[in-house]
Amino acid sequence: IVGDHLILTASYGIGAVSAKMGRSDAKIAWSKPDVLSSQYTTPIVHGGNLYGIDGRADIPPAHLRCLDPKTGRVLWSKDDFGKATLILADEKLVIVKTDGTLVLAKPSPDSYRELGRAKILANTSRALPALANGLLFVRDTDTLKCVDLRK
């Protein structure tokens, strides 16, 4: 939910839909099949914008995108980024790619702003990471790992 809009996204030909919520009903504000088709990642809302992965694991490429949720307009796209899960912490996007790469990025509607990256897992990672007290818990198909992100 962004303001009075409910944003829905799904892959497999669905795309993204925004519904403006009223007291007793909802009206479709926009519906676009090609801006944000999220296979299994929930988009992040920050500063009134939406950050998420557009694409599927079985049909590459996948793109990291920032959208204006009111219009559905793509503000920027990091093409061929790959599939990933995202969380927001300390004003940063914490992104774990399916190839096991951790990416930290600054959420900005102007452009993609990567702060750093490191390969932290050896196998495929699809699980949403968990963050507690600066400790990031991630897992792949074989390993559960704790990464210390504190200063």
Through-space gap between termini:
32 Å
Which percent range fits the helix content? under 10%
Beta strand count: 14
Strand content: over 45%
Q: Helix- and strand-based class?
A: mainly beta
Helix segment tally: 0
**Mean pLDDT, rounded to whole units?**
93
Approximate shape = globular
The major pleated sheet works out as: 4 strands, antiparallel
H/E element order: EEEEEEEEEEEEEE
Strands in their spatial order, largest beta sheet: 4-5-6-7
Low-confidence stretches: none
Radius of gyration: 16 Å
Folded structure, characterized:
It is globular and about 45 Å long. The chain has 151 residues and is an all-beta fold. 0% of the residues lie in helices and 52% in strands.
In short:
0% of the residues lie in helices and 52% in strands.
Any chance you could write out the topology, listing elements then pairs?
Layout: E1 5-10, E2 15-21, E3 26-32, E4 44-46, E5 49-54, E6 63-68, E7 73-78, E8 84-89, E9 92-97, E10 101-106, E11 113-119, E12 130-132, E13 135-139, E14 144-148
Descriptive tags:
151 residues; 4-stranded antiparallel β-sheet; mainly beta
